[in-house]
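>> received
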Amino acid sequence: MDRIRFVTQGDQRILLLDFTNCTAQEVSAIADQAPAIVAQEPSGSVLVVADFSGAEFSRNAVEHIKFATVFDRAYIKRAAWVLTGNLPQALYDAVRHFSAREFPVFATREEALNYLVS
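>> returned
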């Protein structure tokens, strides 16, 4: 899936989950496919940025994100999200609490990528 791919920032390899301008159904589909990609990497090694710019969310889509973030927790070294005010705080908090992870939020993909490699 071209919405899940590795990119390079500096000399670091980062997994990009590109949810930009996706419908809630597309968000669910991408979230469902992400764990299989992440699980191919060594534990604790993956830098990941999830870019949700312009994406639509439903409660069902958030459930898919929640399960993906729990599954891939052991593989993730550091994560960052790009949000443009499109995910209600309560749903963001639900993902954080369910996954027991923090997801620093950035306004742009470039800011998120820079955070991951800093």
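>> The first strand starts at residue 4 and ends at 9.
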